[in-house]
Amino acid sequence: MRVLKYIFLLLLLIIIAGSIYIATLEKTYDVKRTRVIKAPIEVVYNNVNDFKNWQSWSPWLSKDSLAVLTFGEITSGEGASQSWKSEVKEVGVGAINTINAKQNETINQKLVLTKPWESTSDIYWSFKPVDNGTEVIWGMKGELGFMSRVFMVFSGGMDKQVGLDYERGLFKLDSVVQVEMQKYSVTVNGETTHGGGFYLYNTTSCKIDELPVKMQEMMPKVRAYAQKNKIQMAGAPFTIYHTFDEDNNAVMFSSAVPVAERVITESGSGILTGQLKPFKAIKTTLKGDYKNLKEAWETANEYLVANKFEQVQGAVALEVYVNDPKQTPNPANLVTEIFIPIKE
Description:
The protein has helices at about 1-25, 40-50, 145-155, 160-180, 210-230, 295-305; strands spanning about 30-35, 70, 80-85, 95-100, 105-115, 120-130, 135-145, 185-195, 195-205, 240-245, 250-260, 270-275, 280-285, 315-320, 335-340. By secondary structure, it is an alpha+beta fold. The protein folds into two domains: about 25-180, START domain (Alpha-D-Glucose-1,6-Bisphosphate, Chain A, domain 4), CATH 3.30.530.20; about 185-340, Multidrug-efflux Transporter 1 Regulator Bmrr, Chain A, CATH 3.20.80. The strands form two sheets. It has an eight-stranded antiparallel beta sheet. A seven-stranded antiparallel beta sheet has the order 1-7-6-5-4-3-2. The termini are far apart. Mean pLDDT is about 90; it is low at about 10-25 and about 150-155.
């Protein structure tokens, strides 16, 4: 009996000492992880800001494909919300809502877990442009009750419990964003009539592999001339291909912007005025990065051959840039229309 008494007293002392130790532990926690994602800040921010995207990269939701997700009336921006129910302990039952969001800068959210235990945390995101992409910080902070601190003593602490999942989540977010930006489609729209019209342009010749650089030099000059002289553009800018000689690695092209009427340009400005007559064409649309234009042209030409259309020899072909890359951060959303002239 005396031995049992000593054992009891020893256990009591251990419990008291452990309780005192746990009571002195830090009650608050702040766990965060950082990753640089090679993508425009708008693309990364927009993905995180919409709860409908979270299932593709959330480190927890990926642990249970059968988890039941419920979205609020809005899913992005201030007031957005999402809740989930899962039988998997690591996922549990909980809800998250966006308290405030500053476009391309920060997102602050409230996370409430009800199973397997109850807890409330503040989730925060920050986004900052850097030289090679976007720096993303994902963090969680809050307070730990006594029993939560007991659990953390034996599980290695909040940083160990949450940090690895945050690293995994940011890695998956990076992967998802990269895949999202690579998406593209090529559609042959078929026969159409291009309406033609007046346009401002400049022209040059170069090697085919120099084409992207030359286009980036020339198009801004045409647009700048129009803006400087307060000439209203009458549509999307485009490239006119006069010749495209793959055998000799040579191309002659013009960078152009459509205008409503004939413009008399200044002598020595390097900018001229031209006019396209309406013409019958095969139209092909690329939705996606410009790097896929080669495939779009090949698809269009294959369609011509397969359907026995005859291209008008010596006539110019057009590449129309429907939306502005500067206003379209995700290259997957760029739209380019190709017009190849065909005989009536």
